[in-house]
Hints:
The chain has 382 residues and is of the alpha/beta class. The strands form two sheets. A six-stranded parallel beta sheet has the order 2-1-3-4-5-6, with helices on both faces. The chain has helices at residues 21-31, 47-67, 81-97, 128-135, 142-157, 166-174, 200-205, 220-228, 230-234, 249-252, 271-283, 297-305, 316-322, 337-348, 353-364, 369-381, and strands at 3-8, 35-40, 103-106, 120-124, 160-163, 181-182, 210-214, 241-245, 260-264, 286-289, 310-312, 329-331. The chain has 16 helices and twelve strands.
Amino acid sequence: MREINLFTYGDSTKPATWSNVPYCLSSALQSMGYRINRIDISLSDNRLLNICRRIWNAVARRVLGILHRGDKFAYTFDRTPLFCKEVEKRISAANRKYPNACCNIFLSFSCYNRHSEAPSILLCDWTFEHLLREQYGREPYACERKYIQLQQEAINNCKYVVSLFEKSAQYIAERSSNPNIVHLGSNVINIIGENHPTEELSSTKSATHNILFVGGYRYREAAVQLVESFDALKHLYPDLKIDIVGQTVENLGISIPDGVSCHGYLDKANPRQQETYYRLFKEASLFINHNPIWAGYSSMIEAMYFYTPVIVSPYAEFVGEFGEQITFGEYCSTFSREELAECIRKVFDSSDRQRMAVDAHNAVKDYTWQSFVEKLVKLIEE
């Protein structure tokens, strides 16, 4: 059996790690006959580093954030030289423990296996520089440039760089000497277990008014706008329901009307919570996350796979993938409660709701881990 060393930030046996990606990837590779050597490089089991992390986040990061008031500060402890040095030690130890691997896959753009003759493949979404310049809209600070250089070294010295987003792959290729920067033609939907939709959902969804929102605290303002739109919309759609996953009532900090339910974080590794999660996706007749710049891509395409029209902000990656006009929902471009309510009315009042549901599914129906891993294995076999 051929071996792959899989390096992840977190436990790849747990679906909760990085939006289910390590779990789904490793499961798909195992189904194709590969033995997976799982190496957690988050260093979460290192007591001393965890103390350093807490001190950093409580003191140093807060002070640096104050010095750069008005900007999003992303230089976490996991991007410091101390942390990166310890990660390098763990990579070296894994190389000695698993010397027969045919390749090393890193779910990060920040490191590669310099100790092995087997090729390294880096698979992630975007680089730290891309995050700062494109999503945060600012130049890197002096303390952040060292980490950008570290990522650039890893990208230039690995065999392949695989980005989940085509726009990100182009961004990396423009800044790298590595000729093997690739996008495998699609992203992936992170479905756990046998939770797959049937086309019957397209007809049942077009007869209800159930809205689903998925997103953690960073999407709080978008969730609040949706809740604040509820009373006005309830008069138009008496059966209206809103389910919010990833937020609690305490997180939102506002009064929650009857008909709105907050479920908090739902762990797919927990059978009961997994059942609730997929029940909500099957019942939802409209999925919403209109947060600007980035709007929870993974849960968005998961909802689409479950025959759910969407309301989403026209952020670059989504528009680049699905076009400036979508037939499976509406773009909400101004991030206002008024436009959000108007977009909801457009979808709910449309005579083509069932067609929207089918179009949503068809847009992502090929985004399976099986298809993605088959393309990835071709790189490994080379």
